[in-house]
Design a protein that fits this description.
Blueprint (H helix, E strand, L loop, with lengths): L2 H5 L20 E3 L3 E3 L7 E8 L14 E9 L2 E9 L3 H5 L6 H5 L9 E5 L2 E5 L6 E3 L5 E4 L15 E2 L6 E6 L6 E6 L5 E6 L12 E2 L3 E6 L2 E3 L8 E3 L6 E6 L8 E4 L4 E11 L2 E9 L13 E9 L5 E5 L6 E4 L11 E7 L11 E7 L4 E5 L5 E10 L9 E9 L4 E8 L9 E4 L10 E5 L5
Antiparallel strand pairs: 1-5, 2-31, 3-4, 3-32, 4-5, 6-7, 7-8, 8-9, 10-11, 11-12, 12-13, 14-15, 15-18, 16-17, 18-19, 20-21, 21-22, 22-23, 24-25, 25-26, 26-27, 28-29, 29-30, 30-31
The structure holds fe (ii) ion.
């Protein structure tokens, strides 16, 4: 039986089969093979985090140990590939994600959900714990609580304001305080923390900012600590509401708006237009109603909150499901024209479970265009990178990891963002299969000083 056969054993949970299966080797490889031409303007590192259980197994796709894969691009070359476990307390002690020690030790992060840079530092994030800092070669430096000031978890989806370089984030918890809003200034110092009142602890995976606001999604996936193996479930009685508050505000400043019950793992972006706050989000009609394995597909929706009248509207923007929506980092909190995501081939309801495509939304024209990377291609999240500082919102590159089931291999694929449907401009061939993962970032050399 080959390794792949074992990985595809029907007795394994789906999140350990095929390209979900973890890899154990930590490699360092230089001068990678490339098909096509890497744009010479790209000088930095593409980093991507994911769940990669060191023990080989975990109770849920979200529960494995964090492993960051990185590719350095410079001068038109792929200089190196590295993959490293994030060396957390959880990993060192061999803890399971659902062990009480893991749930209540703020350093016992899986550190598996996102990796991003702020204030010249790189962080591996998971929403239940403190962040872990990595160096530029992906070695773990340690866990940080910002001089003891941060006493809550740190979301895996902070929002970096492109105008102020503040990092807005929050922590949520199954026990009070259920929700706390925080801000790191441009130097990385924690300068604001404010508890926000919500009725219960809910899974608040992500949030939004505008130029003026922080926006919280209090949605009905609620903690149930009587079942630590599956501690979150849909609650028909919880309702759903969106909290909009001024940046750097407190609980006294927040306004809550009722919306139809739903779940949102990932908003695309939010912005202000006149009196209105516009939020484009990937909306699931429900999530984890019966177990932490079920859920309905994700469709792009637009919520509009009128701050003058209090009116709320909701509009579905497309008919194809998607995952991993992203905008150009330079328009986070500002009005966007384009969005990037991945979608199942033929518009099915699954995403990574089915061979897929990369999509580009154009919200000005209300259209969606597709990059088809091959019949057996499984793309993960794609991020947009501008060609230079003066480039427009579609003038650059979309970069992400793609698994090819035909030969059990992975490429870092670079797409021309201005030419939807075109062939990749470059494929950087990874020296090993890169398991499906979660989120990543382009860390430009200019961001690391
Ligand atoms: Fe996420």
């Amino acid at each position: 039986m080959t390794d792949l056969d074992e990985r595809q054993s029907e007795s394994a949970p789906w999140f350990l089969q095929g390209n979900y299966a973890p890899v154990q080797n930590e490699l360092t490889e230089f001068d990678l093979q490339v098909t096509g031409a890497i744009p010479p303007s790209l000088s930095g590192q593409y980093l991507r985090n994911g769940s990669n259980p060191k023990s080989g197994t975990a109770g849920h796709w979200f529960f494995g140990d964090g492993m960051v894969h990185g590719v350095r691009l410079e001068a038109g070359k792929a200089a190196w590939y590295r993959n490293r476990f994030v060396e957390t307390t959880k990993l060192a002690k061999g803890l399971e994600a659902t062990d009480p020690e893991t749930m209540f030790d703020p350093t016992a992060s899986a550190a598996n959900t996102h990796v991003l840079a702020h204030a010249g530092r790189i962080w591996a994030l998971e929403e239940g714990h403190l962040p872990y800092e990595l160096n530029a070669e992906l070695e773990t430096l340690g866990c940080d609580n910002f001089g003891g000031k941060l006493t809550t978890a740190f979301t895996a989806h902070p929002k970096l304001c492109p105008e102020t370089n503040e990092l807005h984030f929050f922590g949520y918890s199954p026990v009070a305080p259920f929700l706390t809003y925080h801000v790191l200034d441009a130097s990385g110092a924690l300068v604001h923390s404010a508890e926000i009142n919500v009725p219960a602890g809910t899974m608040m995976h992500d949030f939004m900012i505008t130029r003026d606001h922080a926006i919280f999604m209090d949605l009905p996936v609620v903690f149930d600590l009587s079942n630590l193996e599956a501690p979150l479930k849909w609650d028909d009685n919880y309702g759903a509401r969106i909290g909009i508050m001024p940046r750097m505000g407190t609980n006294a400043d927040i306004r809550w708006f009722e919306v139809d019950p739903c779940y949102v793992f990932h908003p695309l972006n939010a912005y202000v237009e006149g009196d209105q706050v516009v939020c484009d989000v990937g909306r699931h009609a429900s999530m984890w109603r019966n177990s932490m394995e079920d859920g309905e597909p994700c469709y792009m929706h637009r919520w509009t909150f009128d701050l003058a009248s209090g009116a709320v509207s909701e509009q579905q923007l497309d008919g194809d499901s998607h995952a991993f929506p992203r905008v150009d980092d330079r328009v986070v909190g500002l009005k966007h024209r384009y969005g990037w995501g991945v979608a199942p081939r033929g518009g099915g309801s699954g995403v990574i479970m089915e061979p897929g495509t990369v999509i580009r939304w154009d919200f000005d024209t209300g259209t969606q265009q597709t990059y088809d990377l091959g019949a057996q291609s499984y793309p993960g999240e794609f991020v947009f990178v501008q060609d230079d500082d003066a480039a427009g919102e579609d003038e650059g590159w979309a970069i992400g990891l793609v698994y090819d089931a035909a030969d059990d291999s992975s490429d870092l694929v670079i797409l021309d963002a201005s030419a939807p449907g075109s062939e990749p401009v470059a494929r950087v061939h990874m020296p090993q299969r890169v398991p499906f993962g979660f989120h990543g970032s382009w860390v430009d050399d200019s961001a690391m000083g």
